[in-house]
Design a protein that fits this description.
The structure is a single chain. By secondary structure, the protein is an alpha+beta fold. Helix content is 34%, strand content 15%. The chain has a two-stranded parallel sheet. A two-stranded antiparallel sheet has the order 3-4. A hairpin with a 2-residue loop joins strand 3 and strand 4. The protein starts with 9 loop residues before the first helix and ends with a helix.
Length: 79
């Protein structure tokens, strides 16, 4: 088996340059495709999804929150 890859993802590069990084997800939880592990391994500072980002009155569909409301909340968090 080859050794693990030795590389630095963009979130880590941004952190070393003095930036803070966030990963925004329009569904309710990180269980899909082990997303929490992936986000952590990539080096993001924050992982926002579901009630960590959205409001109760935001419409939720089977596949996640609607794009308009999701982007509104994500952009507001970035400011």
């Amino acid at each position: 088996m080859p050794p693990p890859a030795n590389y630095m993802c963009l979130p880590e590069r941004f952190r070393r340059a003095g930036f803070e990084t966030s990963f925004y997800y329009s569904f309710t939880g990180p269980g899909f495709y082990s997303l929490l592990d992936t986000v952590n391994a990539a080096g993001f500072d924050h992982f926002l999804y579901g009630d960590k980002l959205m409001k109760k009155e935001d419409p939720f569909f089977q596949w996640g929150y609607g794009d308009c409301h999701f982007y509104k909340r994500a952009l507001a968090h970035m400011k």
